[in-house]
Amino acid sequence: MTDKAEHFKAVTERALGVRFVSFNEVSGGNSSRNFRAEKEDGGGGFVKFAAKKHMDVVFERQNAINSPLVPKLLAGPFATPECGGEMCVMEWRDGEMRDPAALTTVEIDSIVENYRALSGAMAPLAPKLSVPDDLGGATTVPIHGDLNWRNILYSGSKVSAFLDFESMRLGLAAEDLLRIPLHAMERTRFWCAKRMRKLESVLARIVEKAEYPEEDWLAALSIYIKRKEGKRTKKGSFAPALALEKALREPMYRRVGRIIRVAAQKGNGNKFNRIIANTKLEEVGRGTRRAAYRVVGTPYCAKFYRTPEDCASSQKMKPSIKREIAKRRFDLRMNSSSMEVAVYDGMLKAMPQEIASRLPETCKRVFHPEWGWGVIETFYANPDGSAIIPYEFECRRQMENDAMRREIYIQSRDLLLALIREGAFFYEPGNFHVLIHGDGSIELKLVDFEPVAKTAIPLEKIWPWFRREKLRRKARRYLEHMRGKYRIAVTPETEIG
Description:
The chain is an alpha+beta fold. The chain has 4 domains: 3-90, Phosphorylase Kinase, domain 1; 100-269, Transferase(Phosphotransferase), domain 1; 273-378, Phosphorylase Kinase, domain 1, CATH 3.30.200; 389-494. The chain has helices spanning 3-16, 52-60, 105-122, 175-186, 193-209, 214-234, 239-266, 271-278, 308-313, 319-328, 336-350, 353-356, 391-397, 402-422, 459-462, 464-485, and strands at 22-26, 32-38, 44-50, 73-80, 85-90, 141-143, 152-155, 158-162, 169-171, 281-286, 290-295, 300-305, 363-368, 372-378, 389-390, 432-436, 442-446. The strands form 5 sheets. It has a 5-stranded antiparallel beta sheet with strand order 1-2-3-5-4. The radius of gyration is 31 Å and the shape is elongated.
């Protein structure tokens, strides 16, 4: 035992009136010195020496958290002027700390599960905590404030305790869990690519398992970055060095943002994932690659790639299509449903109201553990409860109603003209679906977006004129087909030129 440790031991024994057979220093933070003290009868505890302002936090906040995951205060705090502050004794918790890059899936899930319980236990302390100025009017909850790998103890593969609540405050709900991998990333050299990939995997798993939405994670990341930049600036470091450090960190932060977006859409924080997981799905249609399902009891329908079993039982499906399905089901970038949502988001932002009003009210990515990526969107039904169908099928069903067929045709033509004028990425007029309202009027809805053609050089992406002309040619062909097959009489001058 060092002379310093002997000094702290003597101070502790005088304050408590007991004798310790061992008194060993353990790792701690920058604001305290910590020791494990053991008596002859096996009792003892965790002895902390810190400044009075830190000890007040330990006494008032940590001891007020009613959770088995938080060590309780056993004695103190006692004033110890000879040690420059105060001393207290807390429960000793057996366990070990783990490097975040070495965490297993079970350990990561345990962190998320136990943090959820801790968050509930901290909630009653909200009135006693202050809100940081940089959070503005954001919704805040009590958080640990400094949750890194050194403040989490494990027993086996389970979390046994959370430590060091000196930084406890009000903050964004996702801040604590985000800090666990991000704190380690900040201290990983940029050339340690293998370690960084492991930490990114830990981050993705945490975001997937936690129940916070994507917006909360991204807001927590933004706050973290701003505070880090503020701390670096306060240090008064050499300006070029700060600029270089910022430049080296920016790619990491961008990567973290991308991981968060994908993992949040894939995980429990996506409310539509929870709807899909807990609701009966009723198949309402099947295409070459995907099947459509009604999400029973909700205003939604969902589309996923057909399962391997379904593909195997299909005699008409080409082997190339089966391989494509197998490759794309779990690949977010190549998945048709994912691309469909991207086109929807782009159209919703760029298109005028006459087109935007035809889009589904909801169109979001969802993830199913067995089916992979899919899309969930508003389910439109006719007054009789039947699902809306493509305009050509509706024309076929209305062969005895000339006025209805003509109205379907006119709305299709007007919508195509608007799409051509705006240069929209929409190349499948056959995906206009007819919604019949209770008063007998109809409205066309745009569904099942086809963003790009399968060409070696997609000129439509880089040349708006080519995109408009391609849609114009398709529109002429579709309208001519409708006029001939469904006997629709219109004046030539009103058609697409």
